[in-house]
Write a structure and sequence with these properties.
- The structure is a single chain.
- The chain has helices spanning about 15-25, 50-60, 80-90, 100-110, 125-140, 155-165, 185-195, 205-210, 230-235, 245, 270-275, 280-300, and strands at about 40-45, 65-70, 95-100, 115-120, 145-150, 170-175, 200-205, 215-220, 255-260.
- With about 300 residues, it is of the alpha/beta class.
- It has two domains: about 5-125 and about 285-300, Aspartate/ornithine carbamoyltransferase (Rossmann fold), CATH 3.40.50; about 125-285, Aspartate/ornithine carbamoyltransferase (Rossmann fold, 3-Layer(aba) Sandwich).
- It is globular, with a radius of gyration of 19 Å.
- The structure holds phosphoric acid mono(formamide)ester (CP) and norvaline.
Length: about 300
């Protein structure tokens, strides 16, 4: 049973999934390949892009998406996640879960009869990384580029570390001390990078890191679940904003990415978010194409 809880789970298929995503984006590919298939989409946290893109992806592939909020499920009243999985996966062909704790998605997958996709946890956001790689491929034509992430070393960064390492892209994470990405994932990504030839770096020196970058990326300073630490985070991350001044240090052709939602004048300024170098709206659109490819790969007969 193939689950996609981490980018590592698609390490052998990531290039093929991206190729398939391009085929779907061009309007080609098998017609309704998932006819008769149902995807349960379980959300423990808010979502705009993930919910809509998965729902539309299933519809466009001929299948049926089922939106389930944990507060409406018995899970919200204390039914354990293992039992939820045992029952739910008798009805559907696949499950996408957005959960607070990564371990909950692991527990769900261990009791599942069908493929489980991580739609974001505190540890990873693999579907986001797929759309990001698709966007970079479109804008830059290859993965032989240098991407620099500026800000909090969170779930999105963990998945980006693995994806860039697998695809041989150079990737630097510029973050304040104490905000580094997950140490285990970082270790794993560095190990993969040794084989693929990508250069990875985690550094507090933002200006130096950004010099000559082809892609700049950021995400919110306060992720879902980090709200109690908001005041401290806003102070600690002040120097890690993508603004026009920082963007000038990158390659003149550099593109800017953000997984969204964005908080203007925290991690990014309006001027950059909607400026000529921004690719964020294409990036948001690419969630749909990348996930269609992922669903096709996991659920087709
Ligand atoms: N980027 C992303 O996952 O957005 P949502 O939280 O709106 O799904
Ligand atoms: N790091 C953010 C990503 C939102 C898509 C969060 O976890 O809230």
């Amino acid at each position: 049973m193939q689950h996609v809880l981490s980018v590592l789970d698609i390490q052998d298929q990531i290039s093929d999934i991206l190729k398939q995503a391009q085929i779907f984006k061009q309007g080609h590919g098998t017609v309704e390949p998932l006819k008769g298939k149902t995807l349960a989409m379980v959300f423990e946290k808010s979502s705009t892009r993930t919910r809509i893109s998965f729902e539309v992806a299933m519809y466009q592939l001929g299948g049926f998406p089922l939106y389930l909020s944990t507060s409406d499920l018995q899970l919200g009243r204390g039914e354990i996640i293992e039992d939820t999985s045992r029952a739910m996966t008798r009805y559907v062909d696949g499950v996408m879960i957005r959960a607070r704790e990564h371990q909950d998605v692991v527990k769900f997958s261990r009791n599942s009869r069908v493929p489980v996709i991580n739609g974001l946890t505190n540890l990873e956001h693999p579907c986001q990384a797929l759309a990001d790689m698709l966007t970079i491929l479109e804008r830059k034509g290859s993965f032989k580029v240098k991407m620099v992430y500026v800000g909090d070393g969170n779930n999105v960064v963990n998945s980006l570390l693995l994806a860039t390492a697998l695809l041989g892209m150079d990737f630097t994470v510029a973050c304040p001390p104490g905000y580094e990405p997950d140490p285990e994932i970082t270790k794993e990504a560095f190990k993969i990078a040794e084989k693929t030839g990508s250069t990875l770096e985690v550094t507090p020196h933002v200006q130096k890191a950004v010099k000559g970058a082809d892609v700049l990326y950021t995400d919110v300073w306060v992720s879902m679940g980090d709200e109690e630490e908001a005041d401290q985070r806003l102070k600690d991350l002040q120097a890690y904003q993508i603004n026009s001044e920082l963007l000038k240090l990158a390659d003149p052709e550099a593109v800017v990415l953000h997984c969204l939602p964005a908080v203007r004048d925290q991690e990014i300024t309006e001027e950059v978010l909607n400026g000529p170098q921004s690719a964020v709206w294409d990036q948001a659109e690419n969630r749909l194409h990348a996930q269609k490819a992922l669903l096709y790969f996991l659920l087709k007969d």
